[in-house]
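Researcher: Next entry in the queue.
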Amino acid sequence: MKINILDKKIYNRIAAGEVVERPFSVVKELVENSIDAGAKNITISIWNGGKDLVEITDDGCGIEKEELPKAFLPHATSKISDVSDLDNIITLGFRGEALASIASVAKVAIVSKPEKQLYGAKITADGGNIGEVEDAPSDNGIKISVESLFYNTPVRAKFLKTTRAEEADITNIVSRLILANPYISFKYYADDELILQSYGGGEEEAMIAVYGVDTVRNCFHISAEKNGIGIRGYIGRHNFTKANRTYQTLIINGRYVINSTVSSAIQNAYQSYLMKRQYPFFVLELTIPAEAVDVNVHPNKTDVRFSNNQVVYGTVYSVVSKVLDGSNEALDIVMENPAAPVSPIFESVAKTDNSDDKNVKNEEFSSDFVDEKNTEIKTNYKKEKRARPLSNQFWEYSAINDSGVSTCDSAAEQKIISVFNENKKYLEELEKKAGKEKPAEVFEFEKTEEKTSELPKSKADAFTEQGDMGIDYDFIYVGQALKTYLIFEKNGDVYFIDQHAAHERILFDSIYEKALSKNSATQPLLIPYILNLNSVEDAYFQTRTEYLKELGFAIEEFGGNSYKVTEVPLDLAEMNLDEFFSDVLNDNGLKQEKVPEVIREKLCQRACKAAIKAGFSLSDGEIKALIKKMNGDMGLKCPHGRPVAVRITGTEIEKWFKRIV
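Model: Structure for this entry, 661 residues:
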């Protein structure tokens, strides 16, 4: 057996499989290098989801001209120089693999100018082939361009996602980098459109840049130190939860990571406050002694290990629980949050003799803060149509005077107010029609066509005998028990029918068939529902919008990762849209099933709400109509799985009374 020493082109390409998974990996590695270089301003530009181009520009220390050829060499790094450095890693990069791996599967150019260097210098690499260093004009700092990613590895290129999905993943990682580095200014462009921008003004400003001011208002801003671990950041209030874990950001010593120990601690702290399929929102940074955390677990550096998981788990769980439970200790943990209202949990604890004056000052500060951010948002939105914060904030900030004329000059705001006024007119038209037209119900009992000069007959008068129902099941109606259960006799057996379950099943079958046919009537919304998503949710939702439109939803893009819903299926008109779209984002079977579980569940709720309730006395006609709709099937179950009817045999009844043994 012959052992081969691999050429650097081969092992660099192998290493690229772990370091450079997809375009977002390139962005992450290069931006982390910029952060390590001390950059205060970083610009990220991508084209075609990063497949055609990823370009990072920063104002960091740069690389000296004579050092540039080393940049593409494997295991070349300025971050560590001794094996002992691995035990105390404080930089984001340290392995020296990123640039070499990227250069082996793309066309890369570096233009660099340290502050003390008179001119800039440029070097290129094409599929691992390194070019010569040459002079080039440049500002202080560095610009790295990565073109045609995986052009020489077609198998890898084949597995890339769609352009929109790749862009979503890049947006996601840039968001985390902004949150992890709140004192660095970021600009992020996709195909020349500004997607995200932060100004390096601190944690709150970074949160607003990524999630908007409304999110900050719905969070506790916390800071604590326990067991030698610092915990700082934002956690969602009790009722501020999300449909998935993509709204969870964990930062350890300045590095965005994914760690099950910390995630489990936070999830368990929230457990008693969470509804089904809901997850906590958090952006937390843990400061842990470098020797107590191992970041050298995987080349992508998003996984870490702790020397003592129990201490980390217990610390995080304790701090978060105290805040959620509103204990006295929470007053020392929760920081003043100008953009957020005072939590009811702390109002009674925090009041002092001077509390009224303090509250007035806080309210004034909060108002000034919001006004300042409002002006900033308007200005940015005019400049860049996809800039943050998201569009729902314009509902909050738009000013309408008593005459109904908008005082806002943003095109986006004018558009929203226009929609509002249109829907207002629609409401007035509906009010004029009120009483003139009665909408058809999903299920109606049989009605008589007979007309007389007397008062209208009851529904019971429409039926005089069993044969009128057109069925021959020989069910003999005995009576109604507890105003809930209908009792029938047939062939010596007794049947108890749950009137609510039976009617619910009939209604459900009717609207379910309409859902299958995708031909349901629709209901316009008085005020459009605005759905705001993060980048990961947006990529997922894009694959589901056509299916939702087939069901009767009218959905259109509304800027950034926002969508406007103007119509819903009539049978789902009364549902909670927040809960519905939360379930949609968690339903992986939405496209695979004819009527997926999330839709079926809402149809069940609709049928349940419209069905006859227990404790309601039915007329004879209504009872006969119900049994006819059941078509004699006593084996039905309601949509939730409860039996519609229970049969008790005559033999069993006779045993009760000891007539037979």
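Model: The first strand starts at residue 41 and ends at 47.
Researcher: Noted, moving on.
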